[in-house]
């Protein structure tokens, strides 16, 4: 116990210390929200990766999908790395940085408002972001409950409050730079921790080959799990027992990052070209190790089929699977795991509260509710709203609704379904219309919310994936049949891509 407590004390002390150190570089709104658009490659890459993966992935998703798909769940991690990191940086990174600077946009709703010349789009986008970021934050707390119960035997509610207070302190004090530096530190912890945990868990099963052999002997006979029931070896196979539903998970958790405000926000703060190139590589490698490692570990979950992972009604408590896998580890490793999951959770939480407070302040309160809000007032309001946002998410996490386990899927489906298509197309095409953005908002939120009550798509995960794909189809179709924006206005925005720059020969062979 002393080892676990010591690790936590050191971890929290470093996080608060970084927040205090970063305060000196937070002098205005641009510094607080974007780090002055001067964040280097490694900090940007780690900020992107650590915001991507939280306790929901490590505890909830790794346990749930590892149980359902076996080793094939590793494909989710590969999809996260290739689609959610590599392609996201290649497709969105540079263009996002250039156009958002041209528009002087600090948030995703502000981008929509200025890119499509519509204050209403900005306000609606801000409302959507705030509403659906709260349940996402609550789902992060939920992923910590069983791990803390296993390691410390203390009340889940106490864990939630401590984590929320500490995260709030360093974000409120240091702003974006505090989150970026802490994300870097937390990312290093996550890399070391996941490698140590995988090695230890497999060692306890007699090594990798023996663990795979044991997994291959388990029949896929659970009707709720398998589309290919009754065969041995499917949990150790290439595509697993249910390839189609596995594909839905890959789409939601990989493509979804392209439309999440807290993820795309990282591209706004990129410093220079080097940061784009290095960040692309580093964030992809980070995702391969962290996400691939989490789902790979979860793939062995059925080797820990013990009474502790079952609910009273006989169903599987998916959130209990990974903690059960870790319960037999040495105390030092359990302490590392706790810090690992805390790192993953606090980095994502800090990104979410920063995004939500800045969006509500800059896109909703400023100019719409309070005219001519000064920079000093904006900073004060954002800091207050960070506290409010954390309190709301804590209240939801302390009294979770019945669908708490599905909150991440619901949040990702609504946010990415509403924002992904108009944001990506808006960076590349001059032909996208205001009506198309409204249509995407309606499709993203409409399908997600209606499915919560009507359940016409059984899995919230698949519903989220369908919502994103629907947006990618709806936006260009609606743009074809609705009035175009003024040519002069759009041409002026896109001039940012044609601006001439001078580079060294090592970067280009052009004469």
Number of strands: 0
The CATH fourth-level homologous superfamily: Sodium/glucose cotransporter
Looking at the overall shape, the CATH architecture is: Up-down Bundle
Q: Unreliable segments (pLDDT under 50, ≥5 consecutive)?
A: none
Structure description:
This protein has 511 residues and is an all-alpha fold. The protein has a single domain (2-400), classed as Up-down Bundle (Sodium/glucose cotransporter). Helix content is 72%, strand content 0%. The chain is globular and about 65 Å long.
Write the layout of secondary structure elements.
Blueprint: H1 2-22, H2 29-34, H3 41-52, H4 55-69, H5 74-103, H6 108-115, H7 119-142, H8 145-152, H9 156-204, H10 208-216, H11 243-255, H12 261-268, H13 273-298, H14 321-326, H15 331-365, H16 375-398, H17 407-428, H18 434-454, H19 460-481, H20 487-494
Name some characteristics of this structure:
mainly alpha, 20 helices, 511 residues, 0% strand, Sodium/glucose cotransporter
